[in-house]
């Protein structure tokens, strides 16, 4: 399996990359880590006429903890983000999720922003961005725009990134005070795509009662499925919250599909179990925060 | 679609080659540079047979274009032994514990494990499993490979 021929572009600056993308238009594709794109090229599921390789744009290999959140540049590899202690302290959900992304060797090369643009509904990072209400910064020649997660994921393997646009960074907002997160998933083999997965966020008030409880579901819809279960849990301390009712509410909101790996009913069952576990984990983390 | 001139430092030797943009690093190593120690299994990133070290970090050479790594350092399985040909601790451990088996997946395992033990010289059982989880062996149940990794850690500890 070899990729179809393409015109290779190796820009040395963001400006050069945006020029190449603008000229390529809908025939252009951006190569960063390539851990999802190159398999698609090898299997000829994708055959872009122009490949714009941004691996020389070290200006995009940034990872910053800002007042508004963790900003991850387009060339920051999964492993770099996973290993960062400042990032783990500022936004623990990133490390929790990244440990479940494929295998360590893939994480050496794959990029966080690339995963978001790839927009696989079975992937962990789109669920993280959706749960945290983050955004992706898209640049084109002469213009930049920030797109919220809610608007960014438009369908399976489809994002709001338009022809000629380059996703230059993503912002993962920080957690409010007294908040905790968790990521749980079930895969046949560790590192494989999850049959089902849940990212959860729980926040507490000063009296340690629940003020926010929400989840993002993986592999059970065309895009990450965000469900707010704050009302179902009740504004109670975590020990007496209605976690089982919350899990049922999440199950009611999803429309999983069957495939060769699992039936729709099994996926719905898994989501219920994982939602309850992840919400409890997140609440425990919030109590410790 | 003209060929592109690139320079790679492979196992310490500077190599210059002209390749099309679509040439996978695995094919560049095998066909353009004659280093057939790097094996090609699935060619979509699942099996790990083609794993090499890129600037010291293990990566899939079938999911990397040669042109992307122009100017970088590559270590293949041929480069793991000492310059005088003495096998590395990881290579010796695999031979000693029969972690080689049919040998097809071995180059990928050796490169992956070399980096794993460099970063974590005394991994737990779980860390070993996580570390090699991206490499498939179709011979057996991995017992000898796992044993080899622990043995390599022992050898390295003894020799330092």
TrEMBL record, chain A:
<keyword id="KW-0274">FAD</keyword>
<dbReference type="InterPro" id="IPR016167">
    <property type="entry name" value="FAD-bd_PCMH_sub1"/>
</dbReference>
<dbReference type="Pfam" id="PF00941">
    <property type="entry name" value="FAD_binding_5"/>
</dbReference>
<dbReference type="InterPro" id="IPR005107">
    <property type="entry name" value="CO_DH_flav_C"/>
</dbReference>
<dbReference type="InterPro" id="IPR036683">
    <property type="entry name" value="CO_DH_flav_C_dom_sf"/>
</dbReference>
<dbReference type="Pfam" id="PF03450">
    <property type="entry name" value="CO_deh_flav_C"/>
</dbReference>
<keyword id="KW-0560">Oxidoreductase</keyword>
<keyword id="KW-0285">Flavoprotein</keyword>
<dbReference type="InterPro" id="IPR051312">
    <property type="entry name" value="Diverse_Substr_Oxidored"/>
</dbReference>
<protein>
    <submittedName>
        <fullName>Carbon-monoxide dehydrogenase medium subunit</fullName>
        <ecNumber>1.2.7.4</ecNumber>
    </submittedName>
</protein>
<dbReference type="GO" id="GO:0071949">
    <property type="term" value="F:FAD binding"/>
</dbReference>
<dbReference type="InterPro" id="IPR016166">
    <property type="entry name" value="FAD-bd_PCMH"/>
</dbReference>
<dbReference type="InterPro" id="IPR036318">
    <property type="entry name" value="FAD-bd_PCMH-like_sf"/>
</dbReference>
<dbReference type="InterPro" id="IPR002346">
    <property type="entry name" value="Mopterin_DH_FAD-bd"/>
</dbReference>
<dbReference type="InterPro" id="IPR016169">
    <property type="entry name" value="FAD-bd_PCMH_sub2"/>
</dbReference>
<dbReference type="GO" id="GO:0043885">
    <property type="term" value="F:anaerobic carbon-monoxide dehydrogenase activity"/>
</dbReference>
<feature type="domain" description="FAD-binding PCMH-type">
    <location>
        <begin position="1"/>
        <end position="177"/>
    </location>
</feature>
From TrEMBL, chain B:
<dbReference type="GO" id="GO:0046872">
    <property type="term" value="F:metal ion binding"/>
</dbReference>
<keyword id="KW-0479">Metal-binding</keyword>
<dbReference type="InterPro" id="IPR036884">
    <property type="entry name" value="2Fe-2S-bd_dom_sf"/>
</dbReference>
<dbReference type="InterPro" id="IPR012675">
    <property type="entry name" value="Beta-grasp_dom_sf"/>
</dbReference>
<comment type="pathway">
    <text>Alkaloid degradation; nicotine degradation.</text>
</comment>
<dbReference type="GO" id="GO:0043885">
    <property type="term" value="F:anaerobic carbon-monoxide dehydrogenase activity"/>
</dbReference>
<dbReference type="InterPro" id="IPR051452">
    <property type="entry name" value="Diverse_Oxidoreductases"/>
</dbReference>
<dbReference type="InterPro" id="IPR002888">
    <property type="entry name" value="2Fe-2S-bd"/>
</dbReference>
<keyword id="KW-0001">2Fe-2S</keyword>
<protein>
    <submittedName>
        <fullName>Carbon-monoxide dehydrogenase small subunit</fullName>
        <ecNumber>1.2.7.4</ecNumber>
    </submittedName>
</protein>
<dbReference type="InterPro" id="IPR036010">
    <property type="entry name" value="2Fe-2S_ferredoxin-like_sf"/>
</dbReference>
<keyword id="KW-0560">Oxidoreductase</keyword>
<dbReference type="GO" id="GO:0051537">
    <property type="term" value="F:2 iron, 2 sulfur cluster binding"/>
</dbReference>
<feature type="domain" description="2Fe-2S ferredoxin-type">
    <location>
        <begin position="4"/>
        <end position="80"/>
    </location>
</feature>
<dbReference type="Pfam" id="PF01799">
    <property type="entry name" value="Fer2_2"/>
</dbReference>
<dbReference type="Pfam" id="PF00111">
    <property type="entry name" value="Fer2"/>
</dbReference>
<keyword id="KW-0411">Iron-sulfur</keyword>
<dbReference type="InterPro" id="IPR001041">
    <property type="entry name" value="2Fe-2S_ferredoxin-type"/>
</dbReference>
<keyword id="KW-0408">Iron</keyword>
């Amino acid at each position: 399996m070899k990729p179809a021929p393409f015109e290779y572009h190796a820009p040395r600056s963001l400006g050069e990359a945006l020029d190449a993308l603008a000229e390529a238009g809908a025939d252009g594709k951006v190569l960063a880590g390539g851990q999802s794109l190159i398999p698609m090229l090898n299997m000829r599921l994708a055959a872009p006429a122009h490949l714009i390789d941004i691996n020389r744009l070290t200006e995009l290999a940034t990872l910053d903890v800002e007042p508004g959140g963790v900003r991850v540049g387009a060339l920051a590899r999964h492993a770099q983000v996973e290993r960062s202690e400042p990032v783990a302290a500022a936004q623990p959900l990133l490390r929790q999720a990244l440990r479940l992304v494929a295998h360590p060797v893939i994480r050496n090369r794959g990029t966080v922003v690339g995963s978001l643009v790839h927009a696989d509904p079975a992937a962990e990072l789109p669920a993280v961005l959706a749960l945290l209400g983050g955004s992706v910064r898209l640049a084109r020649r002469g213009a930049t725009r920030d797109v919220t997660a809610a608007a960014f994921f438009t369908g399976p393997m489809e994002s709001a990134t338009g022809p000629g646009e380059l996703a230059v960074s993503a912002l993962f907002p920080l957690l409010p005070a007294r908040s905790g997160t968790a990521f749980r998933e079930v895969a046949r083999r560790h590192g494989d795509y999850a049959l089902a997965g849940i990212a959860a966020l729980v926040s507490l008030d000063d009296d340690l009662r629940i003020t926010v409880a929400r989840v993002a579901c993986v592999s059970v819809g065309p895009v990450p499925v965000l469900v707010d279960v704050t009302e179902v849990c009740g504004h109670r301390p975590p020990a007496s919250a209605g976690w089982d009712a919350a899990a049922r509410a999440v199950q009611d909101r999803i429309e999983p599909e069957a495939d060769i790996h699992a039936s729709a009913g099994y996926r719905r069952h898994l989501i219920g179990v994982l939602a309850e576990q992840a919400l409890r984990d997140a609440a425990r983390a919030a109590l410790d925060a | 679609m003209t060929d592109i001139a690139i320079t790679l430092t492979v196992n310490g030797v500077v190599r210059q080659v002209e390749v099309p943009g679509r040439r996978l690093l695995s094919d560049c190593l095998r066909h353009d540079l004659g280093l057939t120690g790097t094996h090609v299994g699935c060619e979509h990133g699942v099996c790990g047979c083609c794993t090499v070290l890129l600037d010291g970090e293990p990566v899939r050479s079938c999911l990397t274009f040669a042109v992307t790594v122009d100017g970088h350092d590559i270590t293949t399985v041929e480069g793991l032994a000492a310059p005088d040909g003495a096998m590395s601790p990881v290579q010796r451990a695999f031979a000693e514990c029969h972690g080689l088996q049919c040998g097809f997946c071995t180059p990928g395992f050796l490169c992956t494990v070399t980096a794993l033990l460099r970063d974590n010289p005394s991994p737990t059982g779980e860390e070993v499993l996580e570390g090699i989880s991206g490499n498939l062996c179709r011979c057996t149940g991995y017992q000898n490979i796992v044993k080899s990794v622990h043995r390599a850690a022992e050898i390295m500890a003894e020799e330092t």
